[in-house]
Amino acid sequence: MESQRAEAARAYLDNRGAAVLEALDEVAAAHETAVAAVSLAWLLAQPRVLAPIASARTTEQLDQILPAARLKLTPAEVDRLSATTQVA
User: Fold this and answer.
1) Are 83 and 20 in contact (CB under 8 A)?
2) pLDDT digits (tens, 9 = 90+) for 12-49
3) 68 Cβ contact list (under 8 Å, min separation 6)
């Protein structure tokens, strides 16, 4: 049985969602880190976000998000991720 979060996430798996995931995958690969860490690092780079909230239910999930605290995205990476998340 899938979680309710997984079911709700299906609504975002359109072309725009695929573009976001592709950008996250590429930036994560460039930094040799997890997509979750890149996602949080991008949020930290947003001037209007004071403190992104993340949760982990397992130590594996925690290991994936902790690198965000030290991850420094380039301005080009922040711009790319921001562009893919814009509503058309």
Assistant:
1) no
2) 778 888 899 999 999 999 999 999 999 999 999 999 99
3) 36, 37, 38, 39, 40, 41, 44, 54
State whether the Cα torsion 54-59-63-66 is positive or negative.
positive
For residue 58 the two structure tokens come to 């397992």
Q: Terminal CA-to-CA distance of the chain, rounded, Å?
A: 34
Q: How far is CA 53 from CA 7, 15, 22, 60, in A?
A: 21, 26, 23, 17
Tokens of 53: 């909230």
11 vs 34: CA distance, rounded Å: 23
> Does the pTM of the predicted model rise above 0.85?
no
- The residue ranges of every structural domain in the chain are 4-85
Residue 88 amino acid letter? A
**Residue whose pair of structure tokens reads 């996602």 in the numeric block:** 39
